[in-house]
Amino acid sequence: MQLLKSLFSKKEEVHIEVDPVQIGDERISLIPLKTVIVSCLDHKYKIEKEIMIPAFSSIRVCCLCGESLSGFREAYLLAEPSEKILISTDFLDKCCVDKYSKIKFQNKYWCYIGFYNFNSMNNYCDNLFTQIKSIFSAIFLTFEEEAVNAFKVGIIDVFLNMINQLNACNDITEKEHILNEVYDYLTKLFNTLVEMDAQKQIFVKDVFAALRLKEETENAKEVARVHSQNSFLQELSARKELLEYFNTPLQI
Questions:
Q1: ∠ at Cα 150 (146, 155), nearest 5°?
Q2: Can you state the angle between helices 123-142 and 152-168, rounded to 10 degrees?
Q3: 3-class SS of residue 9
Q4: Alpha-carbon 127 to chain mean position
Q5: Domain limits of the chain?
Q6: How far is the C-alpha of 76 from the C-alpha of 25, rounded, in Å?
Q7: How far is Cα 154 from Cα 185, in angstroms, rounded to an integer?
Q8: Torsion angle, CA of 62/67/69/74, rounded to 10 degrees?
Q9: N or C: where does the chain have the smaller number of CB atoms within 10 Å of the terminal CB?
Q10: Residues 6+ apart with CB under 8 A from 76
Q11: Rounded CA separation 72/83 (Å)
Q12: CA nearest 51: which of 27, 28, 33?
């Protein structure tokens, strides 16, 4: 891999490409999300407990929830223990990346978020490199452009120089040190942007509102069903009475 030139031009742009959501995708959340852990029996969801998913959590995407919860998917939070959760498709689209997502630079360099391109990388380095690319993506996707621009030149320069340094050295200890330093820098910068209240207003469907609406709809359907059944039985009873009257001999 050729060395990348350090860039100090504000014209340098970053583009994050994220593929559409598919069943089986492993996504990384870029912002926290409040949702629910559920169990499912006969296509009915039972809420086990509420949960706050931290930023940069791994999520495995499963099937759509159906018409009663349109716009939501079942998913598994890949932690110990793995839990089934409900998550909106627009959150997966707007606030997550996956290993096939690409970070592209104007200078033609690009890399996948979930893969590495360097020799002698162990699992620790591989996972840390993925976290670094996820934080990098979160900065450019989830914070206001005006705030990011204050740090943009430095972020890009650090990222591309990191690539140069990883490509140039073979010692795993050196690679770990480089990645740890970059991770520490980007984490501090991410937290700085959070403290600046610079996060974009990203609107996604509220699972709690959707579950309330689902319950209200199901309750309304049940009330309508019981009313319809009672009306039918009353009408049937009236018809039976009429039939009995018809079959009763006249008393003269």
A1: 115
A2: 160
A3: coil
A4: 19
A5: 26-96, 100-195
A6: 11
A7: 11
A8: -10
A9: C
A10: 59, 60, 62, 82, 83, 84, 85
A11: 16
A12: 33
One-letter identity of residue 83: E
Q: Report yes or no: 190 and 139 within 8 Å, Cβ to Cβ.
A: yes
Beta bridge partners of 76: 60, 84
Cα(185)–Cα(189) distance, rounded to whole angstroms? 6
- Supply 166's token pair: 């990883």
Tell me the residue ranges of DSSP E strands in the chain: 14-17, 26-29, 33-41, 44-53, 58-64, 72-77, 83-88, 96-98, 102-105, 110-112
Virtual torsion, Cα 28, 33, 39, 42, nearest 10 deg: -90
Helix 172-195 and helix 123-142, axial crossing angle in degrees, nearest 10: 30
User: Taking the model in full, what pTM does it have?
Assistant: 0.79
Six token digits for residue 171: 């010692």
The total number of residues written for the chain in this structure = 252
Residue 116 confidence (pLDDT):
64
What are the structure tokens assigned to 224, written together? 């309508």
Q: 3-state class of 203 per DSSP?
A: coil
Tens digit of each residue's pLDDT (9 = 90 or more) over 31-74:
999 999 998 877 788 888 999 999 999 999 998 888 778 899 99
pLDDT category at 132 given cuts 50, 70, 90 is very high
